[in-house]
Amino acid sequence: MDKKNSQSHAIVKTLLITGISLVLGLFFDYFFYGKNLGIAFPLYVIFVVAGLFFIANFCKKQINKEVIWLLIPLIFFSAMVFVLSSALLTFLNVVASLLLLLIIAQVSLREKMRNFFVEDYLKIFFLPLNFIRPLFQTLSDVLFLREINKDQKVVPQIIKGIAIAIPVLIIFLFLFSSADLIFQKYLSNIMSMDIERETVFRVILILIATLAYIGAYSYIFQKTENQIAEQKNSTYSIGNIESSILFGSVNALFFIFILVQLTYLFGGESNISVQGFTYADYARRGFFELIAVAIISLLLLLTTEKYSIKKKTDHAVGFKILSTALVVQVIIIMASAFTRLALYEEAYGFTTLRLYSHAFIMLLAVILCLLLYKIYKDKRENTFAFRVFISMALFLTAMNFLNPDAFIARRNIERFAATGKLDTYYLKSLSDDAIPELMEILNITDEDLRKNFASSLYKRAQKKIKSSNVSKWQSLNISRMRAEKILNAKMRELEQ
Predict the structure, then answer these.
(1) Cα separation values, 44 from 27, 89, 110, 471, Å
(2) Torsion angle of the four alpha carbons 142, 148, 152, 155, in this order, in degrees rounded to the nearest 10
């Protein structure tokens, strides 16, 4: 009897996961297809999390308490998609929300997040690959409910074969239709049936979203009794001599480069002119290359620190000294990149890429300091990884509160007061987040700039009126609504 109840419970759980996933797939189409991201995004995230708790309640599974804490940044980042409209910031908020959902999927019923190592955070990006096997298992259970305990090896193989064949067939169809005009004609005739292509695409989109959620929920609630985290001890290691040679040579190279920075970048314009360059030509370039140097250095430090031979649990004194010297020099190099970028902004104004590069330099500096603290004090890699995770979450939170597009508009307008230069062409491309600040341009003394910008604002307002007539509630966004209100008021003022 217990066996029958258990089997019946498994069937209901399978159908429940499939049903909730199908609803989320339909909602995905309804909320997002052909619509701008807005209020629908945080609502959709809430539905996804609600599905998790609903299934957990049915399965009588206790969700890890860490999930509750993860819901705080998840709700914040998803809500900022509704609040702000900057394209890049919206992208980062969406990515952060998706990554947090993946982390929640991993820690809901499994290991604790505080035990994550660096590679565990990196594996989160590839976690959807782990959804594939549970997806096949659940689909086979749905298709063959009466045979849940029989021939489970055959059905998943069939489904896998189909899943692999479909993309391969699509590729061959594309190649054949490109190579042969007759084949292309036949294919076009098939595709030009009464069913609209948009309908087919939306059905496929719903199917993909549904399968993704079936895989995710099945992965979370699959049987995980006696799961053991296998930690493979790598036989490869880096000895003190190898690390000393590596870090010693890198430090020497960095030291030479820093001497050049101190002599020329920080040493004054006269030293540069002797070399046949202007200060502007020398200083206003190379910042992206230096950021790349910092990133590579961080990866080098992380890798070497992980595989270096330790005396008990502590690093050798030589390793500590050389790694400290490298971190200090990398921070000086990042200061050089920061200075170059500031000079570039002083000459040409603020842009989204330059602002984010500035902020990213500071984040890298924090991570390097955390790594140095790990080498000297707290040796636990999982603690270091968790601190980096918190730092990145705080970084993105700060960027949301900063409101980058508004900040860029404000700083460029302030720069106009000092230099008389204003790139209105770029400012017009900023998102609606910047509209309140951009209104200040209408008060500047330069009549040509003022009239030109007023004309662009009028066109922008007209577009908003047209788009608001056809926009759906799913696209509601606080920043866009505020900008529309401001532009409409200003347009009425200009018309009078």
Answers:
(1) 8, 19, 24, 18
(2) -30
C-alpha span between 494 and 492 (Å, rounded): 5
Closest CA to 352 of 394, 414, 396, 403: 403
Band of the pLDDT at 303, cuts 50, 70, 90?
A: confident
Return the ∠ at Cα 72 (arms to 66 and 75), rounded to 5°: 130
In angstroms, the first-to-last Cα distance of the chain is 82
Q: Could you tell me the CA-to-CA distances from 119 to 251, 382, 385 in Å, in that order?
A: 26, 10, 9
Is the confidence at residue 84, as pLDDT, over 60? yes
Q: What is the pLDDT of residue 230?
A: 40
Output the CA torsion 217→219→223→226 (10° steps).
Answer: -140
pLDDT tens digit string along 116-160?
A: 888 888 888 888 888 888 888 887 777 655 444 444 455 554 554
Contact present, 308 and 238 (Cβ < 8 Å) = yes
DSSP state letters, 101-149: HHHHHHHSSSS-GGG--HHHHHHGGGGGGGGHHHHHHHHHHHHTGGGTT
Share of the chain above pLDDT 90, in %: 17
Length of the chain: 496
Could you give the angle at which helices 197-221 and 132-143 cross, rounded to 10 degrees? 100
Angle at 176 between CA 172 and CA 179, to 5 degrees: 140
Q: Provide the CA 19 distance to its chain's centre, in angstroms.
A: 29
Give dist(CA 101, CA 220) in Å, integer.
12
Helix (H) or strand (E) run with residue 86 in it: none
Confidence of residue 73 (pLDDT cuts 50, 70, 90): very high
Q: How far is CA 221 from CA 61, 138, 183, in A?
A: 9, 11, 46
Q: Is residue 273 over pLDDT 60?
A: no
Run of H or E residues at 21? helix 2-32
The domain ranges of the chain are 2-221, 240-396, 405-495
Cα(356)–Cα(359) distance, integer angstroms: 5
Region of 417 on the Ramachandran plot (φ > 0 left; ψ -120 to 50 alpha; else beta): alpha
Rounded Cα distance between 115 and 386, Å, is 8
- Measure the CA–CA gap between 127 and 105, rounded to whole angstroms: 9
d(CA 369, CA 372): 5
Query: What pTM, to 2 d.p., does this model score?
Result: 0.70
